[in-house]
Write a structure and sequence with these properties.
Elements (H helix, E strand, L loop, with lengths): L3 H28 L3 E3 L8 E3 L3 H18 L4 H24 L3 H11 L1 H6 L5 E4 L3 E4 L3 H20 L6 H19 L3 H21 L8 H19 L2 H7 L1 H11 L7 H5 L3 E2 L5 E2 L6 H8 L4 H26 L1
Helix pairs in contact: 1-2, 1-8, 2-3, 2-8, 2-9, 3-4, 3-9, 4-6, 6-9, 6-11, 7-8, 7-9, 7-14, 8-9, 9-10, 10-14
């Protein structure tokens, strides 16, 4: 079977299932009180949350169809898929039961177990200008859970604006898919493109003005997918480069006191009459841009997505040029 058939079929199903589910999921979530306030608008509209469930179900359906057509790297593919699925289910649990940050870290680390158990693709990591670093068994038993947990929680923290999480998922997963395809890693490309398609469908409803929010189910998924695809394809540097904006946001938040209690202490951003946003008084990547230039939500998200695209392009070009 042509290697592109599973990718195209799986991506089409992921897009279609997600696109079909989102408008039907909205009333179901609202009826159960799974909603959130859109704090960056003056009217403070309430929208359905946990929309990432549609992304996850679309990804599962798309992967299932693609897997039926896939004959290569079956064990590695299943391990990567299960890890992404378990991270998504961790997000579902957090959306429903409001898990603490420490529990999300632990559960994401445990979610990496399927990928750890099936991983047999060597013990080295490649970095530009440094070359290959041999980590031995630490790559499987330390780097994989650390990578999955860190990437998932980083993308979870850079969130909260209409279209931001979905847009970053589209750019990162799409870029990794193209890179994997360029290197002939079609099984890894399959995972990336199926997730890309699910995020692209969700973006139709999450773009400004959003009618549904992804919740932690949707914000953990991009990082998990990036980590798994990067490890599975052995193109880890590119995956790392694509979470740099989220890592910068995390680093800025960590330099202040009580980094996990910012909203409780300082409150939310304040939308002004002209649509621009006044950020609260604590460091974050979004606040840095808002302090440099007055922007409304849509413009801010566009700027952040351009930054993500820049780092994605940098990771792709460096990998192609130097590997």
């Amino acid at each position: 079977m042509t290697t592109w058939v599973p990718i195209v079929a799986g991506s089409a199903v992921a897009f279609g299932v997600t696109y079909f589910l989102v408008p039907r999921l909205i009333p179901w979530l609202e009826a159960r009180g799974i909603r959130g306030v859109d704090v960056h608008k003056r009217s403070k509209p309430v929208r359905a949350e946990m929309g990432g469930l549609a992304i996850l179900l679309g990804f599962v359906a798309g992967f299932g169809v693609a897997f039926l057509c896939q004959c290569e790297d079956v064990v590695q593919l299943i391990g990567s898929f299960l890890t992404i699925l378990l991270v998504g289910l961790t997000g579902c649990a957090d959306d429903m039961f409001n898990l603490g940050q420490r529990y999300k870290f632990v559960l994401c680390a445990l979610a990496s177990l399927p990928l750890m158990l099936v991983f047999n693709l060597g013990s080295t990591l490649w970095f530009p200008l440094i070359g290959f670093i041999n980590l031995g068994l630490a790559l499987r038993w330390l780097a994989i859970p650390l990578g999955v947990t860190t990437a998932s929680n980083l993308t979870n923290m850079l969130a909260g604006f209409n279209g931001l999480e979905a847009g970053m998922g589209v750019i990162a997963c799409g870029s990794m898919g193209v890179l994997c395809a360029a290197f002939g890693r079609t099984s890894s490309a399959l995972l990336a493109f199926v997730m890309f398609a699910a995020f692209l469908a969700f973006m139709r409803y999450n773009w400004y003005p959003a009618t549904i929010f992804p919740g932690d189910t949707g914000t953990l998924l991009p990082g998990a997918a990036l980590a798994c695809v990067g490890i599975f394809s052995r193109l880890e540097f590119a995956a790392i480069s694509m979470v740099v904006p989220a890592a910068i946001d995390f680093a800025l938040k960590m330099i202040s006191r009580n980094p996990f209690s910012h909203r409780r202490i300082y409150g939310d951003s304040v939308p002004l009459d002209d649509g621009t946003i006044l950020p609260p008084n604590y460091p974050a990547l979004t606040h840095a841009f808002l302090n440099v230039s007055r922007m409304n939500e849509k413009k801010l998200v566009t700027v952040l997505l351009l930054v993500e695209a820049l780092f994605a392009l940098l990771g792709v070009l460096l990998t192609i040029a130097l590997v």
